[in-house]
Amino acid sequence: SGTSAPSSRVRTSAATVSGYLADSVNLGEQWIVNAGLRTDTIKGKYEQEIGATPGKFSRTDSELSWRAGLAFKPVPTTSIYANYGTSFNPSIEQLSLAANTADLEPEKSLTYELGSKSEIFNAQMALEPAVFRLEKTNARTPSLVDPLLNVLTGAQRVDGAEISLVGRPSPKWQISSGYTYLLAKVIESNRPTEKNQLLANTQKHSGNLWASYIVSDKWDVGAGVFSVSSRTGALSADTATNKFRKVDGYVTVNAMTKYRLSEDMDLQLNLTNLGDTKYFDAVSGGRLIPGAGRTVLLSSQFR
Q1: How many CA atoms lie within 13 A of 285 on its CB side?
Q2: pLDDT value at residue 52
């Protein structure tokens, strides 16, 4: 019944300039070495004109990342590889700066991966298993001196495994499938309640299966499922209820059919989330992002 007015007005800008150099070298017929360097300069500005804590913040970060890998092919149809790389997360990555983040250097991460790629069923299918670890060595955590400020003394780790199988087991069938397991935990934090907790918005299990079939010279059909397990929305329990914010896992079913009008034109009908499953695409401590409901898309393709 009163007069409405904006409670907050924020203006944010971020600009990134990047350059990279990468190369791959064959050492004989069985060994491949690859490496790369990348440089990024990120400049961000944040201004809150109206709100509880109006203020202006800006920050510029310049970082060098690199990666290296080694692959071995014991037989022509199989390769075994090991990769290592670095990356970083600046404070402006979420298009927001505040007094507790504007003076912080970027968070640094290390990635290790070991896997293989094999051609099976007369090279009609590709099988790719892998294990990996992602370590954030200086994660943001509240200062022990001033809890209103953040310091880079935390640590987080994600251990994972994945496997995918894609290809054509027969001339008319095409299959794409995969499964990923993630164990994402807080290793070190100045908040004792956060240690050993699962990282927010990170599921333990996810998987997909898609299959398409060529019915005739004119028609293709396909169907598949996509699944994600439950996720938490914060590293610590809610102070009022002492419970963790959590969203359930979900499964969606998708389908498609394609009709070839001519050699140069196709019509395709895609049906996404056939069961109109209610689910959340992302969750954090302060918000939920709902996933798309049942969607029907008719498109044409020209060649």
Answers
A1: 7
A2: 65
Which residue do the tokens 């507790």 mark? 100
Contact 246/240 with Cβ under 8 angstroms? Answer: no
State yes or no: pLDDT of 209 exceeds 90: yes
Q: Which amino acid is at 189?
A: S
Q: Tokens representing 32? A: 């491949």
- Structural tokens at position 182: 């993630």
CA pair distance 232, 88, nearest whole angstrom: 24
Backbone angles phi, psi at 59, to 5 degrees: -160, 145
Quote the pLDDT of residue 189: 93
What is the tens place of the pLDDT at every residue in 129-167? 999 999 999 999 999 988 888 999 999 999 999 999 999
Q: What is the DSSP string of 190-254?
A: SSGGGTTPBPTT--SEEEEEEEEEE-SSSEEEEEEEEEE--EES-SS--TTT----EE--EEEEE
Span 62-74, mean pLDDT?
96
CA distance 169 to 124: 6
pTM: 0.85
Instruction: Tell me the residue type at 54.
Output: P
Which class for 21: exposed (0-12), middle (13-18), buried (19 or more C-beta within 10 A)? exposed
CA distance 282 to 261: 39
Lowest-pLDDT choice from 43-52, 80-89, 204-213, 217-226:
43-52
Q: Dihedral, CA atoms, 150, 154, 159, 165, nearest 10 degrees?
A: 20
Q: Side chain identity at 36, as an amino acid letter?
A: G
* HEC profile of 60-89: EEEEEEEEEEEEEEEECCEEEEEEEEEEEE
* Residue-level pLDDT at 285: 65
At 107, is the pLDDT very low, low, confident or very high (cuts 50, 70, 90)? very high
C-alpha to C-alpha distance for 275 and 251, rounded to whole angstroms: 9
